[in-house]
Write a structure and sequence with these properties.
- The complex is a heterodimer of chains A (about 280) and B (about 500).
- With about 280 residues, chain A is mainly beta.
- Chain A has 5 helices and 19 strands.
- In chain A, the strands form 3 sheets. In chain A, strands 10-6-2-3-4-19-18-17-11-15 form a 10-stranded antiparallel sheet. A 5-stranded antiparallel sheet of chain A has the order 5-1-7-8-9, with helices on one face. In chain A, strands 14-13-12-16 form a 4-stranded antiparallel sheet.
- In chain A, strand 8 and strand 9 form a beta hairpin.
- The longest helix of chain A is centred in the middle third of the chain and has 9 residues.
- Chain A starts with 17 loop residues before the first strand and ends in an 11-residue tail after the last strand.
- With about 500 residues, chain B is an alpha+beta fold.
- In chain B, about 40% of the residues lie in helices and about 25% in strands.
- Chain B is built from 16 helices and 21 strands.
- In chain B, helix 8 packs across helix 15, helix 9 packs across helix 11 and helix 9 runs antiparallel to helix 13.
- Classes of the chains: A mainly beta (about 280), B alpha+beta (about 500).
- Strand 14 of chain A pairs antiparallel with strand 9 of chain B, so a sheet runs across the interface.
Chain lengths: ~280, ~500
């Protein structure tokens, strides 16, 4: 099916610092939905692809990576382009033809960015109907650097998302915190909530066939605010595998491997700061 | 208490809980020797439901009777938990069906936690520690066997019938006569009945009687649908509770008791015609009708109110009744009768007792017809030898309204009732809840009698004071003359064999 985008003059594209084309806009929109828990997001475009970051309360950060390999066409003229954008509006534009997979119809997407201060241009086309959107970009804010490096990782578990999905879907929202216990001894992974009805724990043994990799060197118990982690359920729902890592400070890194409709793999990661005890002398 | 539910039964268990959750806000859990009882009652106490899961339902069932010391075991094995809490455990039944291999339930007395451990696929274990409160048994007074009418239908039939009604329909009328069964919506207090949609559904015939039923069908049918078991409806007449039963051989049994609205006088007259029904009744009609009709009028003037037909009892502690107690009890009741109805209803389930007292105080009918029925009931209970204590038996435990001995004559009689009954009644297996095992292995949560102990205990409980039991919800229990009397009479021939009752019944007449 000929892409009408190709009818556009190639010369027009010279003005853009970044151009990305993809045949199926849902590959982008679905990933972005997984991190859509705040209105605005910061976009980092580089030669490696797009990274979109959403943060909340200075405690949680979600990053969606859409590598350049996902796109049919990806060109960038600078090392890094950064801008802030209204994620809600962006998603509404990306899904302007509807969000679900409708029969065979695919929405193709072309994203163009001319530079600092210029809007992000989206051209979407489905079945001969063309839509172009121009979304104002905002001054990018500093994003948190959680300084989560693999050398500091104390415990790491890679498992299939299926079993965690249930646990997270049934999270007792009357509980303030979600406690992660990771340990080389039983119970190897335990998620606990303490709500109005009582406490609920889910135990995942390391020899379960849901656990693909289990590397825990020390017993760690960390609590994270349920309200902050709840948005990660969206990413979890889309993912097939998840990696859970904690570092020596108790920071949590959740990395989700998401396969899009075309079988390509994208990653979404969530970083969360632990809930500190107020009377903890160390902090 | 510790029991393990196999994966195959978890859905049924969960469905039972879901259907109980549609009735009440709290779930009463009681591990009994013959099974785990889950009960609930709605806020206005007009509907009660109980599921009894026999030990065969579980892989492993230990009611914990052997564990605690005798002092503790009576008190600590009954608990109630908020329905919301337990719903979090059984929230998604479809996923549970697929993933949970077994469910272990434990009562952790030390920390007051009811522990549900779900052993799922892939070695995953989910543990829910739910806080519970110790409480007294929740018990409804009703008797399925005493009711003259019984309808059995597959849940599908009833579901189809109910679907024809609007969703917000709160009450439906069930009219039964030999030719057909009619279900129609109950139009109450409408300024212009012609402007309201009337739905009228007729079914193939089965039984007879008229009543107006306040029905919460969704809860009941929801459960029945899953189990695809036939649903039995036992009922008597307007104002008497209607009992829906789901029975699965001996693995579990569910009982739903709903209060019914008593008919208005005019309607009742009109509707008495089809009630000629059984042969049992017809020959007795004339004999009793005069008497009863007179009483009926008296009764009508007195505006009896019944709010609650459910009574908690401390019946685990049975055999304390003595004749002395009963007299005291009835005396107490008499005093209470003097009070306003409202205060009676507002008290804890003893409210049943008190309401029934007022009932008695009002109606000579009550007394008369009661006694007839009482005898019937007592006789029954005597037969099975599982009567919990005495005189109160004279109350018609039929249909969930307990009447203790009654005033005057009745009381002294109940006094007489007591001694013999007490002596006989306490069987070896006392630790059971008040159960009237009419039929084989199946155990019903059935007739229990009101005793002084219960009343006193009830007064002490504050947990069942129902806040804001709406005074507006009054159910008039009408005794439709012939049908009532005839029904009661119909039992007498069968039951006159009781050695205790025969003399009393004659005196009453």
């Amino acid at each position: 099916m000929p892409m009408s985008l190709s009818t556009q003059e190639p010369a027009d594209d010279d003005q853009f610092l970044m151009i990305a084309k993809i045949d199926n806009a849902r590959s982008v929109s679905n990933i972005l939905k997984a991190i859509h828990f705040k209105e605005t997001a910061t976009v980092f475009a580089s030669s490696m692809g797009l990274k979109v970051t959403v943060e909340d309360a200075k405690c949680i950060q979600a990053n969606a990576f859409i590598q350049e390999g996902i796109f049919q066409e990806y060109a960038i003229k600078e090392d890094q382009l950064t801008f802030k954008i209204n994620l809600t509006v962006l998603l509404e534009c990306l899904t302007i033809f509807g969000s679900g997979p409708v029969g065979g119809a695919c929405t193709s997407l072309k994203m163009c960015y001319q530079g600092y201060g210029c809007p992000l241009i989206l051209i979407l086309e489905e079945d001969g109907v063309l839509t172009d959107c121009s979304i104002k970009t905002l001054e990018p804010d500093e994003v948190l650097d959680f300084n989560f490096c693999s050398t500091n990782v104390v415990n790491k578990i890679i498992m299939k998302s299926e079993c965690l999905k249930e646990a997270f879907n049934e999270l007792d929202m009357t509980s303030d915190v979600l406690e992660f216990l990771m340990s080389p001894d039983a119970p190897h992974l335990r998620l606990s909530t303490f709500g109005n009805a009582g406490s609920t724990t889910s135990d995942f043994p390391k020899d379960s066939d849901m656990v693909e990799s289990f590397q825990c060197s020390q017993t760690q118990t960390n609590r994270y605010k349920v309200s902050l982690l709840k948005p990660s359920v969206k990413a979890l729902a889309l993912s097939s595998r998840v990696s859970i890592r904690t570092d020596n400070r108790g920071f949590l890194s959740l990395q989700y491997m998401i396969k899009n409709e075309d079988g390509q793999v994208c990653f979404v990661e969530y970083y969360c700061a632990p809930d500190e005890d107020l009377d903890d002398p160390d902090h | 208490m510790k029991c393990i539910i196999p994966g195959t039964n978890i859905k049924v268990f969960g469905r039972g809980i879901h259907s109980l959750s549609k009735i009440g806000e709290e779930l009463y859990l009681e591990p009994l020797e013959h099974g785990l009882a889950l009960r609930t009652v709605n806020s206005s106490r007009s509907a009660y439901a109980c599921f009894l899961f026999a030990p065969s339902f579980f892989i492993h069932y230990d009611d914990g009777a052997g564990d605690a010391s005798s002092d503790d075991s009576e008190d600590t094995l009954r608990c109630k938990i908020a329905m919301k809490s337990i719903l979090t455990v059984f929230r998604s039944l479809s996923t549970m069906e697929k993933t949970v291999e077994r469910c272990k339930i434990k009562l952790n007395m030390k920390e007051s936690r009811l522990v549900f451990q779900l052993y799922c696929r892939h070695g995953i274990v989910k543990t829910h520690n739910l806080a519970f409160i110790e409480c007294e048994t929740l018990q409804a007074v009703f008797s399925k066997d005493m009711s003259p009418n019984s309808l059995t239908a597959s849940s599908k039939l009833l579901c189809d019938a109910v679907m024809n009604f609007q969703n917000n329909q709160e009450e439906i009328t069930l009219i039964v006569n030999p030719e057909k069964i009619v279900i129609k919506n109950y139009v109450d207090d409408e300024p212009d009945p012609n402007k309201v949609m009337h739905t009228n559904l007729s079914l193939e015939p089965d039984e007879f009687d008229n009543c107006q039923v306040g029905v919460d069908t969704e809860a009941i049918l929801g459960f029945a649908e899953v189990t695809t078991l036939p649903l039995t409806i036992n009922f008597e007449t307007a104002g008497r509770p209607i009992v829906f039963t789901i029975d699965s051989d001996s693995t579990f049994e569910g009982n739903f008791v709903l209060a019914t609205l008593a008919d208005q006088q005019g309607q009742s007259q009109a509707q008495t015609q089809p009630r000629q029904a059984t042969q049992k009744r017809s020959n007795i009609d004339s004999a009793r009708s005069n008497e009863v009709n007179a009483d009926y009028t008296d009764f009508m003037n007195d505006d009896t109110d019944f709010d609650i037909m459910i009574q908690n009892d401390t019946t685990v502690v049975y055999p304390r009744q003595t004749s002395v107690d009963t007299d005291k009890h009835t005396h107490t009741l008499r005093v209470k009768e003097a009070g306003a109805l409202e205060t009676h209803t507002d008290r804890s389930e003893g409210s049943v007792a008190r309401q029934t007292n007022t009932d008695r105080s009002e109606g000579s009918v009550a007394r008369q017809t009661n006694t007839d029925r009482d005898k019937g009931v007592v006789a029954r209970q005597m037969h099975t030898d599982r009567v919990e204590g005495g005189g109160a038996i004279s109350s018609a435990s039929r249909g969930g309204i307990r009447r203790v001995g009654g005033k005057g004559d009745n009381q002294s009689k109940s006094g007489r009732f007591n001694s013999p009954i007490v002596n006989n009644s306490v069987p070896s297996d006392d630790e059971e809840s008040p159960v009237l095992p009419m039929l084989g292995t199946k155990v019903k949560i059935g007739d229990t009698t009101l005793t002084e102990d219960m009343v006193v205990d009830n007064a002490d409980e504050d947990e069942d004071v129902v806040p804001g039991t709406p005074p507006a919800k009054r159910f008039r229990s009408l005794f439709f003359g012939s049908s009532q009397a005839s029904q009661s009479q119909s039992r007498n021939p069968d039951l006159c064999t009781s050695r205790v009752l025969a003399p009393d019944s004659d005196d009453e007449n």
